[in-house]
């Protein structure tokens, strides 16, 4: 069959080709370089060609980095405002190379797979989602929450005759196999009678919750039936212990009031500013794959004043980021201790709204609200980053701030290369521009000076 030029969905083609030959999932895929030569891996690959199962003729060809409908994180499918759109947020979807690499590395353990993906500069699939995604691609499961539905345009294109014929050609052998209809089950009458007799004579009926509370005493006075249960006087027992419960409650309230009054009368030995900041402040990074500051190099930048390129820092860490990065920053409450030693304050760094929510459990506006501790937000200039934040509009976020009770506003930091023009949409955002050089060390600038907490 000649190669199809009509529009098609790359994820449907990949899943059809992989599930057609489960013993060798990549038998119907040809990975090619720029010269059209076949490759065994993705090193130097530029395209992936799907071939027919019968004639081995090319059916579809896609660029190796074309985005698929598979989300990088399935939680994005249920975010507020709807799932991402491929036209506006292509970085939110896994490319074809990531799925093919996951199939190539399907027998590797999680740590080895992440290291190999980092070395090959392939977008890795998270450890929790890797197994179900492989099951979806190989046809072991029919659905996956991380796959976005086809749009109206894509639906009409996907049902075009050329696509139907091309996709069917990948699994033509399976389609020609005869199907057998299942015969309805008819139980044997002798077996049915045996089960009925077994249940009626030997089956024990388990006690309900009410039967268990009434106890196991027999009612000899109320009934002549042997083994019947007598109802316990639970209401009488509750009436008997009710005064003791009320007395215990009063003693507890009196004890709490006395402890509160004594704490108020005692002189405060703690600096009010220090006491109000008893919880560690939070810096929120962008989790975009193109972010120059990520969980791998943020500590070296903000604590040591050295910028390490993100990919180099990722390789040094083995491709596995920390969930929370802890850095030390100078404290503005007490510049030096009695011995002249500079004090520092611990700052927590995370890269998602979900991670912020895990750092506290208080209601919005309360002392335990983790969002009230966010003092700085790093951005790459992409507005989709703020979809799940407390303020989804970056103009409101950087004008009102999250940590406004103590610092006045949450500081916004827009990071870019020194030779790169700033994004047009950040002009209306109240952010500090941080320019980084690829080959020189970056000293501690006004960013850390403004983060003194």
UniProtKB/TrEMBL annotation:
InterPro entries listed in its UniProt record: Cdc73/Parafibromin, CDC73_C, CDC73_C_sf
Compartment list: Nucleus
Main location, first listed in the record: nucleus
Gene Ontology, cellular component aspect: Cdc73/Paf1 complex
Ranges for region Disordered: 170-189, 248-276
Gene3D superfamilies referenced in this protein's UniProt entry, alphabetically: RNA polymerase II accessory factor, Cdc73 C-terminal domain
Signal peptide annotation: none
One Pfam family hit: CDC73_C
Keywords assigned: Nucleus, Transcription
Low complexity bias (residue ranges): 253-273
GO biological process, one term: positive regulation of transcription elongation by RNA polymerase II
A GO MF term: RNA polymerase II complex binding
Domain Cell division control protein 73 C-terminal: 278-441
UniProt record similarity statement: Belongs to the CDC73 family.
Name by which UniProt lists this protein: Accessory factor associated with RNA polymerase II
Organism of derivation: Malassezia caprae
Gene (name only): CDC73
């Amino acid at each position: 069959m000649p190669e199809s030029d009509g529009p098609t969905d790359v994820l449907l083609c990949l899943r059809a080709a992989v599930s057609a030959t489960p013993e060798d999932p990549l038998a119907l895929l040809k990975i090619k370089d720029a010269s059209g030569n076949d490759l065994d891996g993705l090193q130097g690959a530029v395209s992936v060609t799907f071939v027919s199962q019968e004639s081995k003729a090319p059916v579809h060809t896609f660029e190796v980095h074309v985005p698929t409908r598979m989300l990088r994180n399935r939680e994005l499918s249920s975010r507020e405002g709807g799932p991402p759109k491929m036209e506006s947020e292509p970085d939110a979807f896994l490319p074809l190379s990531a799925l093919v690499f996951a199939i190539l590395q399907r027998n590797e353990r999680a740590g080895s797979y992440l290291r190999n993906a980092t070395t090959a500069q392939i977008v890795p699939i998270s450890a929790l989602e890797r197994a179900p995604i492989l099951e979806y691609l190989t046809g072991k499961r029919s659905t996956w929450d991380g796959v976005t539905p086809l749009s109206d345009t894509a639906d009409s294109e996907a049902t075009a005759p050329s696509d139907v014929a091309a996709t069917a050609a990948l699994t033509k052998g399976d389609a020609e196999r005869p199907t057998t209809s299942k015969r309805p089950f008819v139980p044997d009458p002798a077996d049915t009678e045996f089960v009925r007799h077994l249940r009626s004579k030997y089956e024990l009926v388990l006690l309900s919750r009410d039967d268990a509370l009434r106890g196991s005493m027999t009612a000899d006075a109320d009934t002549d039936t042997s083994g019947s249960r007598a109802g316990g006087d639970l209401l009488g027992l509750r009436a008997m212990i009710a005064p003791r419960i009320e007395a215990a409650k009063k003693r507890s309230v009196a004890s709490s009031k006395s402890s509160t009054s004594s704490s108020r009368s005692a002189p405060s030995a703690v600096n009010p500013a220090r006491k109000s900041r008893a919880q560690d402040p939070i810096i929120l990074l962008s989790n975009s794959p193109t972010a120059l500051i990520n969980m791998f190099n943020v500590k070296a930048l903000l604590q040591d004043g050295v910028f390490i390129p993100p990919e180099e820092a990722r390789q040094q860490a083995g491709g596995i980021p920390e969930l929370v990065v802890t850095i030390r920053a100078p404290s503005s409450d007490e510049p030096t201790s009695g011995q002249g030693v500079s004090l520092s304050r611990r700052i927590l760094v995370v890269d998602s709204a979900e991670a912020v929510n895990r750092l506290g459990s208080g209601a919005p506006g309360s002392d335990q609200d983790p969002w009230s501790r966010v003092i700085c937000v790093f951005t790459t200039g992409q507005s989709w980053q703020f979809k799940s934040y407390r303020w989804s509009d970056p103009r409101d976020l950087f004008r009102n701030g999250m940590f406004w009770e103590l610092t006045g506003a949450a500081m916004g930091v827009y990071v870019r290369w020194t030779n790169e023009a700033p994004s047009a949409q950040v002009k209306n955002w109240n952010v500090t521009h941080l320019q980084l050089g690829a080959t020189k060390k970056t000293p501690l600038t006004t960013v850390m000076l403004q983060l003194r907490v």
